[in-house]
Amino acid sequence: MDYKIYSAVLLLAAASFSAAAASNTAPSIGSLVNERLSWMKDVAGYKALHHQAIEDLKQEKKVLESAVADAEALGIRGESVKPFIQAQMDAAKAIQYRYRADWLPAPEANWHPRPLDEVRYQISQLSDQILKTMAERLNAGARLTERDKDEFINAIQQKNLHEQDKQRIWNAMKEITLKR
User: Fold this and answer.
1) 159, 42 in Cβ contact below 8 A?
2) What is the CATH number of the domain that holds 35?
3) Residue 71 vs residues 17, 78, 79, 113, 123: alpha-carbon distances, Å
4) What is the pTM of this model?
5) Residue 93 sits in which domain range?
6) Is residue 145 part of a domain?
7) φ and ψ at 76, to 5 degrees?
8) Do residues 102 and 160 touch, judged by C-beta distance below 8 A?
9) Residue 20 placed within a domain
10) Could you give the CA distance from residue 97 to residue 131 in angstroms, rounded to a whole number?
11) Which residues form a coiled coil (predicted)?
């Protein structure tokens, strides 16, 4: 009988530890933004290979409209998310331009970009996850702090991304609000 109680207690302890570990491993907004921006090398490479312009205003409009609709569905005020999305798109373009400039004198050897449709799908999934995570945070009443800022800025580590790009994304993120 004692063995059954011991086993049950051990099982419950393991289950609660696993649940706690799982909740602590949810990606931060900074790490999600970092992952989203990590796809920009592939976007730049694909566009270079296919002689496409980096700036695609039609695609940007589509992304922005989709993000606003998704934000509204999550209880976020759509207008408040526009600068955050635009800041990410501008940072993404800056990364792409900088890669393209790097490749002018010396194209990257033995590397091929992933197909743009595949990359855009991954970016879209990350964008959704970023908005969901932001909505959860706002609904929980969690305010952004200086510590959050440091963690956010440190989480975003992409080649060809400057500190002012990160600051702009952070500043725009701070202005996101729930619908009232």
Assistant:
1) no
2) 1.20.59.10
3) 33, 6, 9, 30, 16
4) 0.84
5) 28-174
6) yes
7) -95, 140
8) yes
9) no
10) 26
11) 47-74
The pairs formed by 13-17 with CB atoms below 8 angstroms and a separation of 24 or more are none
- Say if residue 144 is exposed, middle or buried (CB neighbours under 10 Å; 0-12, 13-18, 19+): middle
Q: Are 116 and 46 in contact (CB under 8 A)?
A: yes
Determine, yes or no, domain membership for 107. yes
Q: What one-letter code names the amino acid at 106?
A: A
What is the number of domains present in the chain? 1
Q: What is the pLDDT along the chain (180 residues), one digit of tens a residue?
A: 555 554 444 444 444 444 444 445 678 999 999 999 999 999 999 999 999 999 999 999 999 999 999 999 999 999 999 999 999 999 999 999 999 999 999 988 999 999 999 999 999 999 999 999 999 999 999 888 999 999 999 999 999 999 999 999 999 999 999 998
What are the two backbone dihedrals, phi and then psi, of residue 70, each rounded to the nearest 5 degrees? -65, -40
Return the structure tokens found at 75. 């209880």
Q: What are phi and psi of 128, to 5 degrees?
A: -60, -45
